[in-house]
Design brief:
The structure is a homodimer of 351-residue chains. Helices cover 41% and strands 15% of the residues of chain A. Chain A has 351 residues and is α/β, with parallel strands linked by helices. In chain A, α1 packs across α2. The structure holds a DNA duplex (30 and 30 nucleotides).
Chain lengths: 351, 351
DNA sequence: ACGAGCGATGTAAACGATTACATCACCGGT
DNA sequence: ACCGGTGATGTAATCGTTTACATCGCTCGT
């Protein structure tokens, strides 16, 4: 029969006939309290509908039990899945997560870092959206526990949890060539982001290693959002000699690419092969299913949280790099045994 | 050249040669301060890298500048888009958002409500995941500003922002019948949720209104997640007389349905028609593109936030119901003029 | 029988901000 | 020259916890 919201330890203490210290002690069971008093306190808590004020508690203990997570784009399934993993792991460790959505805009990232810091999060998981800003540098140097996630920034000694897709991209390029494609293009993310630059580099290297020319007009740069993927594809297709294969740098740009390809009435892989860095559940339902590079997102998120809690506890942690893997489907040609249906019963969820 | 993290108003005051009151005054410009002192304070702030402690501030002012948002499932694009809208609007109003992911599990919702309340959010946006729990009742009755979002709970006087899809569902059923389908089935969300129950009811009503029998074996119940959609479809297809059309109660169950349909090698709409309540960007890229019911998610989220801030300011607000609309594509038959490509240049993003 | 030690409790000082209230200097009107 | 008013500032109380320290009875070992 909770009565009101504004009960404080003082009220509880009064009702239970003990001191505030005793109340606090049973609430945190930080010290021994007689059975009788414990029962009284608990009863008073119940009766008043008392709910501890985490704000006051945080002020006193200098810990909020909260970690901040700044992601690139909340509409991007990759970050969504990442956020989900982070949240799960954090809650297991007793932390709440405050998510900040930078929306791939450099300015917003700092806005969020600022408010998160003001709110005194115990640690920060950051997917850096821009080059190194003074704020981020100060934050790191002032000793706030920070872990970079997915992306990294150079020139700063911060543990980073990321996925290296170089091998998978190399394998993908091999796959493309084996299927007779000779003019593959790449739609990259912003070169300013590590994930933009690295994937482009890996692509160029893979080409070079196989003796193919790296044609600059086949290296488009988008911003990891769908519209830019569509625009990039439009430019590529308007080239005098358009590419015969396109790799999108993330799943949203792949979606945009699909928009443009379908709008032009082109067929995949007949007219053009398409593959995506990032795999999402619905790719298998396209016709043909989309070949993609899958990242171990769950593991990435969970391990980053574990690392951050270590750092919060004052321990050092190492940078970790996980590996992506190529998932061949039909969108670059070939694997069309049974055009789409019932391959090995692949589905977004188990049957 | 910010030096350390632990500067407080006291430090700033000392360095600037003024009192803490003056510092606070310039920080909030709450009262007139001489130009000279203002400059000194600002300089000291800069020099110390002072960052106000929002925790202490909240304790004193009894306001956190934070609202809580408890959603059903962070992996569901519907909620993701909702979260995005909520965040945008909230930040414009000067609020930060703490997201809680109930993961469609009744228990988790209360967990989150509890921690959000402990953390003293100024208001709560709740997509109720279960029936009315004592905690939610207490919260509302204790005067905490609460607004229900997407879903509602009966027996409680809380403003609710939701979408009514009854008309759209009725229209969809009409569409199905017009295309010759006579045995349409519905995969519902949990009957315990308003969005589960309402959509099922609307479907049944639409059938009844048109003189079609409502066959109980065609009314499946899932949990708004993909796996349940797949399972439901398996059961439906195993029926002695399977349905010739299926409407999924949300986009994830539609995805699961696709899994099962494709795994069995069935074709859409040849073998079975499929439509989804909820529209997501990639539906247009299926072959044929998926007919769906689109909800005004952005508007829903933004208006709910505005309502909540009103409530926080102590004003009353009304419940709002928006309307969904049917988007006919090809997955139920017919609209296959140009089977898929280049219809009216539909795409997930503008060209 | 006495002091050490321990368990249970209470008192009061933090934590870092905001703000009501008091103070003080100064200005202009009469 | 005096008084009221106003603008700029400082002092100290306060928000709701946690916790260091003090206190007070007991019990137990010798």
């Amino acid at each position: 029969m909770a009565v009101q919201s504004k009960a404080s330890v003082k009220d509880v203490a009064k009702l239970a006939g003990v001191s505030v210290a005793t109340v606090s002690r049973v609430l945190n069971d930080s010290a021994t309290v007689s059975e009788q008093n414990r029962a009284r306190v608990l009863a008073a808590v119940e009766r008043l509908g008392y709910r501890r004020n985490a704000v006051a508690r945080s002020l006193r203990t200098d810990a909020t039990g909260t970690i901040g997570l700044v992601i690139g784009d909340i509409l991007n399934p990759f970050f969504t899945e990442l956020a989900r993993a982070v949240e799960d792991e954090a809650r297991m460790a007793g932390y709440a997560v405050v998510i900040g959505n930078a929306d791939e805009r450099p300015g917003r990232q700092d806005d969020y870092v600022r408010t998160l810091l003001e709110r005194r999060v115990d640690g920060l998981l950051l997917c850096p959206t821009a080059e190194l800003t003074p704020l981020v540098r100060d934050t790191v140097e002032s000793g706030t526990p920070v872990v970079f996630l997915d992306r990294t920034l150079h020139g700063l000694d911060v543990p980073t949890f990321r996925v290296d897709g170089a091998d998978a991209i190399d394998e993908l390029v091999g796959h493309l060539l084996a299927l007779g494609r000779r003019r593959p293009a790449f739609v990259s993310g912003p070169a300013i982001l590590s994930t933009g630059q690295e994937r482009t580099d890996a692509f160029s290297c893979a080409l070079a290693r196989r003796g193919l020319p790296v044609r600059p007009e086949y290296l488009e740069e988008g911003d990891f959002q769908a519209a830019s993927g569509r625009a990039a594809l439009a430019r590529l297709l308007d080239l005098p000699e358009p590419p015969d294969a396109v790799v999108a740098g993330d799943n949203l740009m792949a979606l945009g690419a699909l928009d443009e390809i379908h709008a032009r009435g082109l067929s995949i892989p007949g007219d053009i092969a398409l593959a995506s860095y990032d795999d999402v559940p619905w790719f298998i339902h396209l016709d043909p299913p989309l070949t993609a590079i899958a990242q171990p997102v769950q593991e990435l998120g969970r391990r980053a949280v574990r690392a951050l809690t270590e750092r919060v506890a004052g321990r050092e942690v190492e940078t970790v790099t996980l590996r992506a893997r190529l998932v061949v489907r039909g969108s670059c040609g070939e694997p069309q045994e049974h055009p789409r249906y019932g391959r090995h019963n692949e589905g977004s969820v188990p049957a």
